[in-house]
Write a structure and sequence with these properties.
Layout (H helix, E strand, L loop, with lengths): L15 H16 L3 H9 L12 H11 L3 H9 L3 H10 L7 H10 L3 H10 L7 H8 L5 H17 L5 H14 L5 H15 L3 H15 L4 H14 L2 H19 L2
Length: about 260
């Protein structure tokens, strides 16, 4: 898979209005922080050194009032605030995100909330998403490696253009990474495996075959990933969903 060329963009300085917009956003987030939402960070295993404690619903509410603004997203990221960084997933412009930006932000990931939100709502909408799955899948940093598989899972759910070959390649990466015992990595790998296996009947068969091999692995993490995936991907619910999807695809082909 060829790596897309990165467009050359002029460097932009923060304008007074951008700084004002950042201050306004931070003030809004602080006003909408709650004790319950701060406790939820600990409850869900999110470690953030600078956090207000604001619900995702409120972050998305604020994003709708802001709209898309690439320069503002960059300035929000630089604040280091957890909620400001979550906000960038909904404010940044996917078409203007560059590979270098993705690498730079990924190196800053320090919890699964930031990692998964950026993968699921921003990075998977860029033209560099598949290249970053390949670039990050074998990195040693825990949240960089998780980002590869969170991004792969997001592509399995959202990418309507890529064919099965891309996801079969993704399954190869899953099988290689499944021996990683680190909690956030193995959960990301499991997420990718299960979502690829729910994409269509052919990928379900391939994913179940991978999951069965992992179930027999001498590595505890691989066994955990494999057994959970086999249970889900062979369940009656998933079989019904795949059959319904196949019928729908057949009807669509018949309409052409």
């Amino acid at each position: 898979m060829r790596k897309p060329e990165e467009p050359q963009r002029p460097r932009r300085k923060k304008t007074p209005s951008t700084r004002s917009d950042v201050d306004t956003a931070l003030a809004w987030l602080e006003r909408h922080s709650t004790r319950r939402d701060r406790k939820n960070l600990t409850r869900f295993g999110i470690t953030a050194t600078r956090a207000f404690g604001v619900s995702m619903a409120n972050i998305q509410r604020l994003a709708k009032t802001i709209g898309r603004d690439h320069d503002l997203a960059a300035a929000l990221w630089q604040t280091g605030w957890y909620e400001a960084r979550l906000l960038t997933a909904f404010v940044d412009e996917p078409a203007r995100v560059t590979p270098r930006q993705m690498d730079r932000w990924c190196r800053d990931f320090d919890n699964w909330g930031i990692c998964d939100t950026l993968a699921f709502h921003l990075f998977d909408r860029t033209r560099y998403a598949w290249a970053k799955v390949d670039a990050w899948h074998d990195r040693r940093e825990e949240f960089v490696r998780r980002a590869a598989f969170a991004l792969l899972a997001s592509l399995a759910l959202h990418d309507k253009q890529s064919g099965d070959d891309a996801f079969l390649h993704g399954l190869e990466l899953v099988e290689r990474a499944a021996i990683d015992e680190r909690n956030f990595v193995k959960k990301g790998v499991s997420w990718a495996l299960r979502l690829i296996g729910r994409r269509n009947a052919a990928l379900n068969m391939a994913a179940v075959a991978v999951a069965r091999r992992l179930s027999d692995s001498p590595h505890a993490a691989a066994r955990w990933i494999g057994r959970g995936a086999v249970k889900e991907l062979t369940s009656p619910l998933v079989k019904r969903q795949l059959a319904a999807r196949n019928r729908g695809a057949g009807r669509n082909r018949g309409d052409r």
